[in-house]
Structure formats: structure tokens, C-alpha cells
Write a structure and sequence with these properties.
The structure is a single chain. The protein has 126 residues and is of the alpha/beta class. The chain is 33% helix and 11% strand. It contains four helices and four strands. The chain has helices spanning 2-10, 23-32, 50-63, 83-91; strands spanning 18-20, 43-45, 74-77, 94-97.
Length: 126
């Protein structure tokens, strides 16, 4: 995971995290693994509505001046029950399930269905 995050960061990709968890322990885990600095506009909340979390994340990126939409977003989860696939489809976000669509996280760097792009800032006149 750290190598993939580093490569995405190097490519200028916006990286975030939506986690059904308690914020304190999850944030500490990211710090222990040394990967917390890769994530922007995280949503770590104790409920399973990742669609809401993701829309909040996208809104945060939009407020930061980035050109983001659900259509240009890829959400990856290890969703064993398939719940989040439908949530993402409902809001128009691309979805990959680890263990089903991809086996290893590094597959996203070369996935045939997605092109990972640099973040684009909106013009201040937009």
C-alpha cells in the first residue's frame, strides 16, 4: 500500500479515505503505518454510508479548488457484502472491489478501465 500511495502522490492524484470506523484509532493506525500524509479530506465516521462520506470528500476537494466529480472518481474497497458497490453506483462513482475486481491494490496503477490522472485545479473564474 505505501508504494502505491507514493506512486499516486507522485502522479499528482488526489487520494482520500472513507472509513466506517472510529476516527481516533483509524487516524492513529494511518500514522503508525506512516501513510497518513498521503490522504486529503478524509472521512472516518462510524456508519456504513460511504456514499455520504464520499460526497463530503468530493465537496471538500471542490472547496479546495479541484475539478472533481463523482464520474472522475474511483472508489476502492474490500466490501465483502457488495453494499458499497451499489452505493457508489447510486451516486455515479466508479468502484473496484478488492478480492473481486482486483486482487492486489497495485493493480489500480495499470487497470485497463481507468486512467489515473493528476488533479486539476479549477480556474478562479469558474
Amino acid at each position: 500500500v505505501p508504494g502505491v500511495l507514493k506512486e499516486l502522490h507522485k502522479r499528482g492524484t488526489l487520494i482520500s479515505l472513507a472509513s466506517y470506523n472510529h476516527s481516533g484509532p483509524a487516524t492513529r493506525a494511518l500514522q503508525v503505518f506512516g501513510i497518513h500524509h498521503f490522504f486529503q479530506n478524509m472521512a472516518i465516521e462510524f456508519h456504513s454510508h460511504k456514499d455520504r462520506m464520499l460526497l463530503d470528500i468530493l465537496n471538500g476537494f471542490w472547496k479546495d479548488g479541484y475539478e472533481v466529480t463523482p464520474r472522475t472518481t474511483l472508489f476502492i474497497d474490500d466490501d465483502h457484502k457488495g453494499k458499497y458497490r451499489q452505493q457508489m453506483a447510486d451516486i455515479g462513482v466508479n468502484f473496484l472491489q478488492r478480492g473481486t475486481d482486483i486482487q492486489n491494490i497495485d493493480e489500480i496503477l495499470k487497470h485497463s478501465d481507468f486512467t489515473i490522472q493528476s488533479a486539476i485545479k479549477r480556474s478562479h473564474y469558474a
